[in-house]
Amino acid sequence: MRTFLKWLGRGILALLLVFACLVVAYWAPDRSVDELKARWAPSPSQFVALEGMSVHLRDEGPRDDPSPLLLLHGTSSSLHTWEGWTAALRARHRVISVDLPGYGLTGPFPDGDYRATHYARFIGELLDERGVKHAVLVGNSFGGQVALETVLLQPERVDKLILVDALGYPPDPTSVPIGFRIARMPVLNRLMQFVLPRRLVEDSVRNVYGDPAKVTPALVDRYYDLTLRAGNRASLPERFKHQPTIESARRIATITQPTLILWGGRDRLIPPDNAKRFRHDIAGSRLLMFPALGHVPQEEDPAATVAAAEAFLE
User: 83, 146, 152, 256: which could join 119 in a potential S-S bond, CB 3.0 to 4.6 Å?
Assistant: First the structure.
């Protein structure tokens, strides 16, 4: 027994030493917004006060557009995912992109409420702040869920809807990025608020691309840096507690706005079967599949995907 306890003690000590080495090697404390602004908030970025937050957004294009586009990004992403689209659209359309609460430079909701209904109310407040009465909502992944909830809550304010690999049905992924898996693990998600291997972020981004070779070091830098924004890592597990349910998905069939559905054929996080469900449930909607693209087609191939959006808008 003494020999067993001796070896057990040595084993525990060895594990603690390995753990300590990993913490030291991958120590990544939160970064302040001021630290990140210089690189990730150049012009035309601006910050507006909403719900006790300093919300990072960009508002580009002609101000006389009667129905501006509001672009909503997905989980652990930011408004930068739409840069290819905004460059193509802003000559003819007013285009507003925003870092949703809990992500990018905006940071967490002060009240810790990450329900989709709260995000929908936030979108209404954002439109009011921008002086926008009617808008076209464009949402990728979680941003699609926010767009859907906004349409259901304030249908009179939404003229058209574009869903890009959108979250709307109970998740049934064939592959989940490792970062998202850790965010759902009670002990590890606490640890990841203090340590973050850059390789973990890279693997997560590569997982959602149809062609992982397109994931560049600069792209990984963006995802990594903005994940470290103070409060973002702590908010992610809270946001994951509020996923679509069968009951919430039934409301999708009540949407009457003209709707375009864009989807990456290689999306393993929200597989293409979801696109077909949207097409079935939203009367008159159009579906366009991009066979070679993954979960963020607007980022992976902005030219092809924005061309489809422009055709729909016109």
Answer: 146
Query: 160-185 pLDDT, tens per residue?
Result: 999 999 999 999 999 999 999 999 89
DSSP 27: B
* 68 falls within a domain: yes
Q: Is residue 23 part of a domain?
A: no
Contact 249, 168 (CB under 8 A): yes
Q: Determine contact, residues 182/192, Cβ cutoff 8 Å.
A: yes
Whole-angstrom distance, CA of residue 233 vs CA of residue 175: 21
pLDDT band at 2 (very low <50, low <70, confident <90, very high): low
Q: Is residue 5 part of a domain?
A: no
Q: Is the pTM of this model over 0.85?
A: yes
How far from 310 is each of 92, 194, 306, CA to CA, in Å?
10, 42, 6
Query: Among 152, 128, 153, which residue's Cα sits nearest to residue 70?
Result: 128
In a domain, 15, yes or no: no
C-alpha Rg value of the chain to the nearest Å: 21
Residues 6+ apart with CB under 8 A from 201: 179, 220, 223, 224, 227
Question: CATH code at 269?
Answer: 3.40.50.1820
Residue where the block lists tokens 């939203």: 282
Q: In which domain, by residue range, is 46 found?
A: 33-313
Q: What are the tokens at 265? A: 């054929």
Cβ(29)–Cβ(194) under 8 Å? Answer: yes
Tell me the CA end-to-end span of the chain in Å, nearest whole number: 79
